[in-house]
Write a structure and sequence with these properties.
Shape: elongated
Largest sheet: none
Order of helices and strands: HHHHHHHHHHHHHH
Distance between the termini: 32 Å
Number of strands: 0
Strand content: under 5%
Structural class: mainly alpha
Helix content: over 70%
């Protein structure tokens, strides 16, 4: 097993002398996000209300499926082909970033769509207590004046906070809906353990873009089986690898008023992704080796 320090060292070794092309590739990769931002900002001047919300949702979903998912695979393929400068070999091309559209786009779209669909399903499962709570609140809002009264009290509290106002709200809740705080707390406590499967699946499917970058023709069944084999018993190790970059994000937050976060982002994005790719490569080698050992053992047994 290798530590986070090893994967980060491998990433820095690859980037040494290749920082500029990596940053240029990252800039190209991030351009569509800026275009989406401009589009969303412009439609706010044209539409409003529920129509604006629905349009924003449709645009973001279409962007994720048709642009973001495909570019993720291409960007990983671009980074995977960057070789250390010491090898004097140029194998990467900026065309790799859009190669998701040219290398079996149909299969890439399908597998990434299934990944998003499965995660959405697990997300909806985790949100069941929240939906129950919203149902209770909607029922109270439709059948009684409890929610409207609480909203009025809350608005007054925000405008002129005072101990008397807090006491008034507490008294009203205890007299009219004493069960509501308990129900809210129960929903919150139930939601926490129900989020665990979602987090597990998030990490289990994390290697899907890297698998597609290696083999755009792989079937969805094999891709999900492979990412599961790679991440099984190693989700926590990968989480700690991600956590080891937290210092950079703290710096970006502290200096958010300056150009430093933007410059750091163009360095950090390829750096982190190359560390993740090294993790993927090492785990893939182990999975393939264990597969060969198992196959040999089965042949001997026969």
């Amino acid at each position: 097993m290798f530590s986070s320090y090893y994967y980060k060292g491998e990433a820095r070794y690859i980037l040494r002398g290749n920082n500029l092309p990596a940053m240029i590739g990252t800039f190209i990769y991030s351009l569509p996000i800026y275009v989406l931002f401009l589009l969303q900002r412009n439609i706010t001047f044209i539409f409003s209300g529920p129509l604006l919300s629905w349009l924003t949702l449709i645009i973001e979903a279409a962007f994720a499926l048709l642009v973001s998912n495909i570019l993720d695979v291409g960007y990983i393929r671009f980074l995977s082909n960057i070789k250390p400068k010491q090898e004097n070999e140029k194998t990467f091309s900026f065309n790799h970033i859009i190669s998701g559209y040219t290398s079996n786009f149909k299969n890439t779209f399908k597998v990434m769509f299934l990944k998003n669909l499965y995660l959405l399903g697990w997300g909806l499962f985790a949100a069941i207590p929240f939906f129950i709570l919203m149902g209770i609140i909607s029922y109270l809002a439709a059948k009684t004046d409890i929610i409207s009264t609480l909203y009025s009290y809350s608005s007054q509290l925000m405008l002129s906070p005072s101990p008397d106002m807090i006491n008034n709200i507490s008294t009203y809740i205890s007299e009219n809906c004493s069960y509501l705080p308990a129900v809210t707390m129960a929903c919150i406590l139930i939601t926490i353990p129900m989020c665990i499967p979602l987090v597990r699946k998030h990490y289990e499917y994390y290697m899907i873009p890297m698998i597609l970058a290696d083999d755009p023709d792989i079937s969805a069944k094999k891709a999900f089986k492979l990412t599961s084999d790679i991440m099984i018993d190693h989700r926590m190790r990968f989480f700690f690898l991600q956590l080891s970059f937290i210092g950079y994000y703290i710096i970006m937050t502290v200096f958010s008023f300056a150009i430093i976060p933007l410059l750091l982002m163009f360095y950090l994005v390829p750096y982190t992704n190359l560390a993740y790719i090294r993790f993927y490569r090492q785990r893939l080698e182990n999975v393939e080796y264990n597969g060969r050992v198992s196959e040999s053992a089965e042949n001997i047994a026969e």
